[in-house]
Amino acid sequence: MAQLILLGRALALKPGEYGELLHDTCTVSRHTVLRQWVDGKYVEERDIEKIPMYWYVDSKVDNQKVFCAYSGYARRIQEVLEKRGINVEVTSKTSDGLPPPDFSPTKAVKWRARQKEVVAKILANRGGVIVCPTGFGKTFLIKLLAQMYPTARILFTVTSADVARRVFRDLSSEVSLEGQVGMVGNGLYQLRRIIVCVAKSLHKCPPDVNLVLADECHELLTVPYIKQLQRFLRARMFGFTASPSGRSDQADAFATAVFGPVLIDVGYQEGVAAGNVVPILVRMYKVMTGPNLNGLSDPNSILRYGVWRNQSRNKLIADVVRQTQAEVGSDSQILIMVDKVEHAYLLGQLLPDFRIVTGPVDGDRYERLKRQGVITEDQQLCSVKDRERSLMEFESRDLKLVIATMVWKQGVDFRDLAVLVRADGLASGIGAIQIPGRLSRLGDKTVKESGLLIDFSDDFFSRLKNKAVKRMAVYRKSGWPIETRAGI
After folding, report:
1. Tell me: the pLDDT tens digits for 42-79?
2. Which of 176-185, 271-280, 308-317, 346-355 has the weakest average pLDDT?
3. Can the peptide bond before residue 206 be classed as cis, meaning omega within 30 degrees of 0?
4. Are 377 and 310 in contact (CB under 8 A)?
5. Residue 323's closest CA among 302, 301, 351?
6. Rounded distance, CA 429 to CA 33, Å?
7. CB 240 within 8 A of CB 128
8. Of 450, 73, 445, whose CA–CA distance to 255 is shortest?
């Protein structure tokens, strides 16, 4: 007989000898890349770092060794032991403090497909991961859980300040939650029963919350964030994500340790079939012209000259955008996503009717970009207030055309967005889900049958083309049909 004792964010297993069977189960393999300048070029060395998420302690009570691990492994440990014929007795020494749920708020709910199942999983488990597409209705679920637990302290954490402000506005507008919603981060410190927190400010939140809900939880799988999440000792903890795999460091397995197993996986095409999200159609244009990059080894230099400052590529993007505008109509919203500020302003020179939305740019960098011709005299920097105003205007459709950096890559609510243009050229698997996710929302003020994703395959240079190949693999896995077109 094995004793599995739940202790908030950790667990203990007695007798500790059983831990010998669990080392691989409770270990995360994280891929690391070391880039060094050797003999006039950058050389990458790749390594796999084995990170144990377990430890041993000596029990002072019965003088025996105890195996300890992160609490998210509880179900997996129980399954491993029971498969070996070992009976497991599970007990909990920590109460989450949640009262029995009040089901009366659910009577008037118009459920989208599988939302009821997600709520049932959260009510029945101490933690876990919810995989669902962008546009599934997470803010709705938070409102409902706050109503079902009218006295519980609930923390909802997001990675972006822009997203935090939007969720705060949405929750605060709910009559039944009036005066109960606060926000921590981005200069605010409002502690209420329900807290919307920017992830970088998690350390400012009180640790005695009852329920933690983490949006885009795959982005919190780093050591600093994991340490902050461990502070909430008694809380039930659930992570939401549209991309459970795809981190470049392969650290996705941290999610099980921190949150627990995947409780439900709603695939994108399942969401389309249920009417929760719209189909996404992909057009991939081939970029056949660019500078000779064979002498470059630094990845940033390759992106700078092959993507951001590639004049022929930028002209192709502008031509495709103009052609698409004529196709979808002047009333349609178009969003161009780039990775860097300099790329946004260079494209802005070719598409002056598009508003530029970026993060902050300091004075020295601004002057340097002006000297390089990246920013012209008639182009204005985007301030924090400008970004906030643009977000509200784009969400309301008062603004139609935008070039944005990754400050808008996730969490924003553009329900009527018709066309998203990926000009970034990045290979990230997570980005290949999150960035196009801006298109997934059902239309609000327009009838939206599908979203059009336009991307570019940089065929003139193999290392850039490989990034496009990786993006397309993710698109196909999501069930998004791809039409390949020659550059116009």
Report:
1. 667 778 889 999 999 998 777 789 999 999 999 999 99
2. 271-280
3. no
4. no
5. 351
6. 17
7. no
8. 73
Determine whether 9 is exposed, middle or buried from the number of CB atoms within 10 Å of its CB (0-12, 13-18, 19+): buried
99's tokens: 């009262």
H or E stretch covering 131: strand 127-131
Please answer whether residues 456 and 422 qualify as being in contact, where contact means their C-beta atoms are separated by less than 8 angstroms: yes
Q: For 186-320, where are the E strands, in sequence order?
A: 188-189, 194-198, 211-214, 236-241, 262-265, 280-287
How does DSSP classify residue 223? H
Q: How many angstroms separate the CA atoms of 288 and 312, rounded?
A: 9
Cα 351 to Cα 354: distance, rounded to the nearest angstrom: 6
Q: For the chain, how long is the longest CA-to-CA vector?
A: 77
Domain positions in the chain = 2-92, 104-272, 278-485
Task: Establish whether the linkage from the previous residue to 279 is cis, with ω within 30° of 0.
Answer: no
Specify the pairing of strand 10-14 against strand 2-7: antiparallel
- The whole-angstrom separation of Cα 312 and Cα 86 is 65
Tell me which H or E stretch contains 482.
strand 482-485
The Cβ of residue 253 has, within 10 Å, a number of other Cβ atoms equal to: 17
CA distances from 289 to 12, 320, 373, 464 (A): 60, 15, 22, 12
Global pTM value? 0.82
What is the Cα–Cα distance from 3 to 62, expressed in whole angstroms? 13
Alpha helical stretches, state H, 173-245: 223-229
Among the residue ranges 227-236, 246-255, 320-329, the one predicted with the least confidence is 246-255
Provide the 8-state DSSP code for 15.
S
Residue 200's φ and ψ, nearest 5 degrees, are: -65, -15
Q: Does domain 104-272 have CATH number 3.40.50.300?
A: yes
pLDDT category at 40 given cuts 50, 70, 90 is low
Give the per-residue pLDDT at 431: 81
- Distance (Å, rounded) from C-alpha 229 to C-alpha 258? 8
What is the Cα–Cα distance from 475 to 429, expressed in whole angstroms? Answer: 10
Binned at pLDDT 50, 70 and 90, residue 41 comes out as low
CA 136, CA 440: separation in Å to the nearest integer?
Answer: 9
> What topology does CATH give the domain 278-485?
Rossmann fold (3.40.50)
Residues 146 and 140: their CA atoms lie apart, in Å, by 10
Fold agreement (104-272, 278-485): yes
- 245 vs 251: CA distance, rounded Å: 9
Per-position DSSP letters for 68-111, written without gaps between them: EEEGGGHHHHHHHHHHTT--EEEEES----PPPP--GGGGG--P
